[in-house]
Design brief:
432 residues, 19% strand, 5-stranded mixed sheet, homodimer, elongated, Rossmann fold, BirA Bifunctional Protein, domain 2
Chain lengths: 432, 432
Amino acid sequence: MQTKALPGFREFYPADLALRTHIFRTWRTVAMRYGFEEYDGPPLEPLELYTAKSGDEIVGQLYNFTDKGGREVALRPEMTPTLARMVAARANGLKKPIRWFSIPQLFRYERQQRGRLREHFQLNCDLIGEPGPLGDAEIIALALDVVRAFGLGPSDVRVRLSDRRVLHALLLGAGVTEPQLPDAYEAVDKIERMERGALAQRLIAAGVSTEAAEGVFAVAALRGLAAVEAALAKVPGGPAAGASLRRVVDALAAMGLADFVEVDLTIVRGLAYYTGTVFELFDAGRTLRAICGGGRYDDLLEALGGVALPALGFGMGDVVLAELLRERGLVPADTSSIDVFLAAITEADLPHVLALAHELRDAGFRAEYALGAQAVGKQLKLADARNARFAVVIGPDDRARGEVVIKDLAGKGQAGVPRDRALERLSEMVRN
Amino acid sequence: MQTKALPGFREFYPADLALRTHIFRTWRTVAMRYGFEEYDGPPLEPLELYTAKSGDEIVGQLYNFTDKGGREVALRPEMTPTLARMVAARANGLKKPIRWFSIPQLFRYERQQRGRLREHFQLNCDLIGEPGPLGDAEIIALALDVVRAFGLGPSDVRVRLSDRRVLHALLLGAGVTEPQLPDAYEAVDKIERMERGALAQRLIAAGVSTEAAEGVFAVAALRGLAAVEAALAKVPGGPAAGASLRRVVDALAAMGLADFVEVDLTIVRGLAYYTGTVFELFDAGRTLRAICGGGRYDDLLEALGGVALPALGFGMGDVVLAELLRERGLVPADTSSIDVFLAAITEADLPHVLALAHELRDAGFRAEYALGAQAVGKQLKLADARNARFAVVIGPDDRARGEVVIKDLAGKGQAGVPRDRALERLSEMVRN
């Protein structure tokens, strides 16, 4: 049979899965330090859950089909609509702010590009019911502490931070009109990926004046809170529009995270979605795609779930993160070792091997033994191949003395130990 | 918007997910004690991966569709075909025996029955490359130690153990012919769920003699190894056919697991699949469906993956197991608590709260604070609502003294502590 995995889908052999486990465990550990609780939803959902949020054009990117009951369904491409439904269903009973995280596998049918996947895992953290900037700082600090927990510092990762309200005030101040704003947002979003002249032509084609187009580029070129605040001081409503951004930056500084933060208004993200703070985490060298993106979406839960609750959150995928960890040498060494390998000298010793192996496993040891009759030398080779730390050898003479032999496979000798003290002795040796 | 989860799909709110996490963690812990390594594969696979093993009739039970690239695909209904492909692709490089486990979510489109799910999670443990009965005992002991690790004993759970080779020898000895064997297997399999007379009629309709049909029922009624061995002694090739079963039972006894084991030939399982040992774990009262099922499938890897390797394994689902844990009061208490809640008396104290909260989180504490300005009393109410063990209050007077106030929220008083000793002091208090 020649069947392979579908293109864009990963198989996780044990060494690959060990890295995934390291990533998931770190995600969970840090989220729990922030008081976040884990939830999950179905990987298959009604199609309308996604079209309601993103319109029918999303269908082209989904794994969608009609199930045997005639339902239009899709593999989940994102978690937020499921989250909105679950929160809405129990909105009154849940304590606010709701601090929830999840690690869903997400699916997109994108045209296959080299190395581009059609599934990935994503840490989703959302804070629901808190309107103020401390909530924004909390969620950004969580994202930063997650990457810090992997051993990444400000020379590896930065958060690029913007605020929709700031961008709105500055663009209007630059002479962009309300109806032209979507085009101006798009130009700011594309400024690092498109040629300036082509962007200017687009803006002018959308009715933006030449002077306002220059103003759009000037806004996009602002870097740092001081420059943004200086610009805000010159436009109507500017200082008020910038108040939240300042508090977010100050709170992150109070937490000792200032070195990670770059105020940068070219972070725009989903137009119809975010209402305030938006941010992305990037590798400092900017050679990879974003590690994480998020922001405040105060209107979405009402639109999707019928419950008016302010909310913000982020998603962090496993793929770019793993690339960065590999690049920086931060992938932990493979720990597929066992503690004890037990060997029987004769067939009559086997029940004694089984009994001790079971006793050791009950005590939490990772223990193995040869499953077929083999010479002791061959059994000890298997112990080496399995990276065992200790071997226990049981033979007729040892049993006659009421003993077993414990060998330190790192070459530090061997000793006879009374059978009824074997567990205790091995526990001491593993601790040392 | 009225969208609900699809019928048969679960949403996991944090309390539900806590139980799932407990189950997954226990599964992983015990599998690793047996030296098993975790792997995973894609949840979406080519349809032919399943039809190659189970024939086209399986399609009626699958979530299958044509993807946007014209591929026939299906959500995985089981893990074994993926396992076979992954092992076959690297068969030469993998050390034998291969000890692998996985916790996939599996999907079946079954006609909806009350409470019947269309997805579940399943622990899959497989041992590949080992032909002998110690491998069978190893995999059964693993399944039993998993249920033992949940706190279940022989009065809660039993393993019903059979062997295809034993059943084959006894049925031929009873006068069933080779071509009639599939019907005889089916009768043995159904003996607890169908009326005896109806089963006898089926057998006779399949050409089985009246006497042989009585023999089939006699074989199905055998209980315990002694009775099975006595019956085997009377049929051609019987003792040889029973040798493996005896060694499996003996090995489980050597491990101290004899109280769990019931030799019972009515455990038949997939006809085209298993070649030797077959077993199922049941609740001792037999009020629930099987908790776990598995056996030896020595021919399957060659048929599916083109690599001839003996293999055996089991699957244990999360649904029946969770029912049993609930029934026996073995679901751990909800631990959604935090360690420390920090409160600021004035707005000027807030940066100090943020700094200490971040320091505590870096040290591994679960720490929270109010995200909006609130009176201290209200902040402490939130601390209670979040089940915090300790509160730290920071106010202007405390700061003037270089102190913070630590309150034990279980009512054991409060004390001022120097700010630079707060982390150390809280670490001591959490340990006590």
